[in-house]
Amino acid sequence: MATAGETVLAAYDLGVSYGYEPVLRGVDLELRAGAAPVGVIGPSGAGKTTLINALRGVITPSSGRVSFHGKPLPGKLARKDKHRFAGSVRSVSQNGILLRDPRLTVQSYLSGALKEARRAGRTHPTTVESLLNFVALNASYSGRAIATLSGGEKQRVALAHALATRPDVLLLDEPLTAIDPGLRAEVLRRLGTLAQDLGISVLVVSHDLEAVERLCETVHVLADGTFVASGPLREVLIKGRHPVVVDLRQAAPLTAQRLR
Ligand SMILES: Nc1ncnc2c1ncn2[C@@H]1O[C@H](COP(=O)(O)OP(=O)(O)OP(=O)(O)O)[C@@H](O)[C@H]1O
């Protein structure tokens, strides 16, 4: 486990291009163990998922760097560091779970994650039942094939899977879009408390300003490939002058009014 305040994952002057098309440029972000959740908002196509993927080490920066405990990603991490990364940095995407075997049950999926936690040296007394309970699903779901779950149920199981290793960093890309607003608020409340109690550093990418406001003390607005405004959502929405922030304010007048 990382010690409080330690930088687990970071992007420095990060640039990513697809072919000749630059998507990110000069993005700086540090995710420290125990830090308050951070949100990234911005228009569709701004590069939010690209940022998450760079932090997951699945795409190679075209400039700058991403590092995990100071070691460059993606890179040839030693076997020990690979397990460490797999347990320490977890992500949940809007797609929930990509299934290789449609017969896979919730029980096998989550117990697989608990085994992964042990391999990564992150053993802790959590059970499949308590993971399900955390995401507001009762124990009867453990016998269900994941393929038979609703979109919102799949998203919650994906979150439970990510939490099974008690990660240091949790990267969330529109994680709870398929859940009704009341339940989403409850799961986010629980997640906020858990992250604080366990020192998990959460980065959440979302178009859902309510969700971001509920969870995050700080938000970054991503536009033109870089962060154009940063701070508490309230300040960013009220005071931001960048055209993208003005668009966000106009697109969510009720939220902007409530935050005033
Ligand atoms: N593999 C890829 N090859 C080429 N272009 C890509 C690839 N992945 C993403 N892009 C492009 O990069 C840009 C940023 O995409 P990205 O998915 O990061 O945006 P986003 O901010 O997450 O968008 P949204 O809010 O719609 O999910 C888009 O123009 C997208 O079409």
Automatic annotation (TrEMBL):
InterPro entries named among the record's database cross-references: AAA+_ATPase, ABC_transp_ATP-bind, ABC_transporter-like_ATP-bd, P-loop_NTPase
Domain ABC transporter stretches: 9-249
Transmembrane segments: none
Keywords: ATP-binding, Nucleotide-binding, Transport
GO biological process per UniProt: transmembrane transport
Any matching Pfam family: ABC_tran
One MF annotation (Gene Ontology) recorded for this entry: ATP binding
Matches recorded under PANTHER family: D,D-DIPEPTIDE TRANSPORT ATP-BINDING PROTEIN DDPF-RELATED, TRANSPORT ATP-BINDING PROTEIN
Family: Belongs to the ABC transporter superfamily.
Annotated protein name in UniProt: ABC-type dipeptide/oligopeptide/nickel transport system ATPase subunit
